[in-house]
Each structure stands twice: as structure tokens, then as C-alpha cells.
Amino acid sequence: MSSRPLTELPESGLLWLINRSVFHPRGLALALDLDEHGHVHGWQLLQAAPGEPFEFTDDVDRAGFQRAEATLLAVREEATARG
């Protein structure tokens, strides 16, 4: 797979997957800092309020899962096609 811009992390579902799997269980969230043009110029780790986990709504979870699965499937298919 070719290099992709960081701005695609949310729409690819991979930011959801990283947060859901790695950061949210630890009370953290990875957030991208965007400029006024939508370009990523940095990132930060956000911490939930004490005793409060980061959670997605069911709709956001479903959509994030579907986007992440589609992205991962596309990568696997591309690798298979290349042989």
C-alpha cells in the first residue's frame, strides 16, 4: 500500500481502531490537530476525566468498525493482487 496522508486516518477507520483498541481502555484518546484547511499539523493524547473512560456511541462504533474493516480488506486484497 502506498503512503497516505494522516488526514485519512479518521475516514479510514484506523484512528477509531487505534483509539478503541489501545488508548480508550487506558482512559486516553489520540486526537489529530487540524489547521483551518483540514491538514494535520500535529497530534495529542487527551485524558478522560478521572474515573471516566473514553467511549464511542454505538453508531460511531459501528461506523468506525465498518470503515476499519473496509480499509484492512482493501490492503489485504491489494497485497494478494500483487502476489
Any key phrases for this structure?
83 residues; alpha+beta; two-stranded antiparallel ribbon; 3 helices; 48% helix; globular
E-strand count: 2
Oligomer: single chain
- Helical fraction equals 40-55%
The major beta sheet can be summarized as: 2 strands, antiparallel
Helix-strand pattern, N to C? HHEEH
The structural domain count equals 1
> How large, in whole angstroms, is the Cα Rg?
15 Å
Structural class: alpha+beta
Range of strand content: 15-25%
Residue stretches low in confidence (pLDDT < 50, at least 5 long) are none
- What's the overall average pLDDT, rounded? 92
Description:
With 83 residues, this protein is of the alpha+beta class. The protein has one domain. 48% of the residues lie in helices and 18% in strands. It has 3 helices and 2 strands, in the order ααββα. It has helices at 8-12, 14-23, 58-82, and strands at 28-34, 40-47. It has a two-stranded antiparallel ribbon with strand order 1-2. The chain is globular, with a radius of gyration of 15 Å. The two termini are 13 Å apart. The model has no long low-confidence stretch (mean pLDDT 92).
Short account of what is shown:
The protein has helices at residues 8-12, 14-23, 58-82; strands spanning 28-34, 40-47.
Write the layout of secondary structure elements.
Blueprint (H helix, E strand, L loop, with lengths): L7 H5 L1 H10 L4 E7 L5 E8 L10 H25 L1
Antiparallel strand pairs: 1-2
Helix pairs in contact: 2-3
